Amino acid sequence: MTFDYDLIVIGAGSGGVRAARVAASHGAKVAIAEEFRVGGTCVIRGCVPKKLYVLASRFRDEFEDAAGFGWRVGDISFDWPALVAAKEKEITRLSNLYAETLANSGVELIRARATLTDPNGVRFSNGGSARAGHILISTGGAPVLAPHIPGIEFGISSNEIFDLPKFPQRLLIVGAGYIAVEFASVFARLGAKVDLAYRADLPLRGFDDDLRARLADALRAAGVEHRAGALPTRVTKCVGGLEVEMSDGAPLTVDCLLVATGRRPMTQNLGLEAAGVALRENGAVAVDEYSRTNVESIYAVGDVTDRINLTPVAIREGQAFADSVFGATPTTINYEHTPSAVFTTPEIGTVGLTEAQALARHGAVDIYETQFRPMRATLSGRAERVYMKLIVDGANERVLGAHIFGPEAGEMAQLVAIALRMGATKGDFDATMAVHPTMAEELVTMRAPARRLGTRTNSA
Prior knowledge:
Blueprint: E1 5-10, H1 14-25, E2 30-33, H2 40-45, H3 47-66, H4 80-104, E3 108-110, E4 114-118, E5 121-124, E6 129-137, E7 141-143, E8 170-174, H5 178-190, E9 193-198, H6 209-221, E10 225-228, E11 232-238, E12 241-246, E13 252-254, E14 256-259, E15 263-265, H7 272-275, E16 298-300, H8 311-326, E17 340-342, E18 347-352, H9 355-362, E19 364-372, H10 375-380, E20 386-393, E21 399-406, H11 409-421, H12 426-431, E22 451-454
Parallel strand pairs: 1-2, 1-6, 2-3, 6-16, 8-9, 8-14, 9-10
Antiparallel strand pairs: 4-5, 5-6, 7-15, 11-12, 12-13, 17-18, 18-21, 19-20, 19-22, 20-21
Helix pairs in contact: 1-8, 3-4, 3-5
């Protein structure tokens, strides 16, 4: 059979772009189709603009803390349209850079929506069509609004929050995942009155409970009003903004309602049924360890597969796919010890097992933890505490998890992940020389366990 391309990639996000570039470097003839802007969620409406807004929000603390170090800062004010414009300029630069990199790699960029017609066929919204030996689905995910709540259409998702024409003085955020808490932290520091509504007792389900509790306290200290156990039941547009009826009976009037209750794989209207591609119950593309679907010619990487929905994971999956299929180097991904960060203020950096997971899997664990006032806070007077926690296997002293809450926690988690992946023990941490004075030195100076959990065998 004659094909127009060796590979057609549907979706020019982080995973798709990496796969296209690497496949082309292996000699494949590659096209990538994108109906929106090149760069995907991360570059356009995710981690990049979000981190820019996080950095913007932290200047409030910087101005306040400066006085303790002898600086005298005059009147300050925040210009929301200026931040939005600066963000737009930067993501436009990055998107153009992604497109330029594709072109330099020999990848043809088709600016159109692509749908499958069969296991090797693709139809484009610009009227064209093509056939390829392999097709890669990398369309990512999209926010989900709760359709069962009357008036929820008046709310917005994380896609729209970056470009509001007017800064919301009163903001209700529904959700307790990392997107919800990050925006709660950002907008509270930028000057909004923020209410955070969620179903559970604490935010960030799935993270270590000690981090969850400390984050809840930090958000509260920043002015975020927690509405644990309460959710909207009806939203009505009014002259003053939005009237929101809550399940606890306490009404709210807000300027903006951000719904951050989850995301879904973007598999709708892609023609997957026509090609015979199997989906999981939640709509994600079902793949094997090589990112291959049940159809031999079709693969999928990134959030559309709902494995670990992080940009670096999608990039690694795209690389592994291209090396496996076009580089004659079969490659699978080891998802263990994938680090992650939550860019609240203070931020969270974590890698490995939580305390509950470690105890369930290993039966006996030692918990090392420390909390202290960072040096910066000694002069600024800010009531800020850093918290660090190591979870150690009670049988062999291998470090199973590291959890950090404080400034630059994400940076530290990236480096600790290397040690955990290499199987470092608590003894290895103890034998590592500290860098003083730093916050990170506490990771190698904790000597006595704070708690010993579980039942130990005689050989432990």
